[in-house]
Design brief:
By secondary structure, this protein is α+β, with helices and mostly antiparallel strands. It contains one helix and two strands. It has a two-stranded antiparallel ribbon.
Length: 67
């Protein structure tokens, strides 16, 4: 009975210490503001916003739709 208790305690300790504690992804824009210069009407402009993950887990960006 004592061996079973020790084995269970060690197993529980291993499981508890290997679980991440509040690990979350965090999306941080590199340049959060981009000012467009005046353009003639109807002209298109393209700008890529760079996002960096500073969190502890992988960042998955899904369901992105154009405005």
């Amino acid at each position: 009975m004592k061996k079973l208790f020790i084995i269970f305690t060690v197993f529980l300790a291993v499981v508890m210490f290997t679980l991440p504690c509040n690990a979350t992804p965090k999306a941080v824009p590199v340049d959060s503001v981009f000012e467009f210069s005046p353009l003639p009407e109807g002209e298109k402009i393209i700008h890529e916003f760079i996002v960096r993950n500073t969190g502890d887990t992988p960042l998955n960006i899904t369901n992105v739709l154009p405005p």
